Every structure is written in structure tokens, then in C-alpha cells.
Amino acid sequence: MLNQFAFIGFLLIVALILGAATPILARLVRPQKAIPRKLEMDECDMRTHGETWVEFKAQYYTLVIVFLLFDVAAVFLLPWALAYNTLELYTAIEVIAFILMLLGGLVYLWRKGALEWL
Fold first, then answer.
1. Using a CB cutoff of 8 Å and minimum separation of 24, what contacts does 108-113 make?
2. Over the stretch 6-33, which tens digit does the pLDDT of each residue have?
3. DSSP 114
């Protein structure tokens, strides 16, 4: 038992060393002289005109996070749908509870107005 904890401790120490060594090594091998072309602000090789900082609404990010949440939920439901005939009753009850939680979250987001596109 102690041997297993020692192995986990060793892996933790190695992970910490590698995590600290990577930025240090990157700083040592990077070019020291900045290239002026790389410091220019451009998108798609087109120069910007006027102010380059544009405000984005946080609602766009919220909508993306909600989409990803329900997309991952669909991935969790896929194996259940493929093995539907071989599963027992308690599994179906768990999946129904999972779907009800998702629907509850959807109703909550709908009432908060997070799904409205402005």
C-alpha cells in the first residue's frame, strides 16, 4: 500500500517538474529578437482601420456554453440509445432522470432569457 502512494508521489513530483520546466525551456529556446512583422495587428492579412478593440456581448459566450452542455449531454445519451434493448429498468429510470434534469436546465435558461438571440 505504501509502495502505491510512493509511486503516486513520484508521478506528482515528475508532473510538477515537467510543468515548471516547459515554460523555462520555451523561454530559453525562443528567438530573443522580435520580428516587426509579427508584432503588427492584422486579421486574415488585412490591415485594420480605426479602433481594433470591439466589444462582444457576453450573451454569445453563454449561448455557446449552453450549446456545448447540451451537445455533451447528447453524447452521454448515445450509448444508452444504442444499447436500449439490453438494459434493465433501473438504467432507463436513470436516463429519464438525466433527461428531466436537462429539460429543467433548459426551462430555467429559457425563463432567464439566455436563449434569446439579440
1. 109/66
2. 999 999 999 999 999 999 999 899 877 7
3. T
Q: How far is the CA of 63 from the CAs of 67, 77, 102, in angstroms? A: 6, 21, 15
- CA-angle at 18, arms to 13 and 24, nearest 5°: 130
pTM as predicted: 0.49
Spatial CB neighbours of 59, under 8 Å, sequence gap ≥ 6: 114, 118
Summarised one tens digit per residue, pLDDT across range 91-106 is 889 889 999 999 998 8
The DSSP-derived string for 22-90 is: HHHHHHHHS-SSPPHHHHS-EETTEE--S-------HHHHHHHHHHHHHHHHHHHHHHHHHTGGG--HH
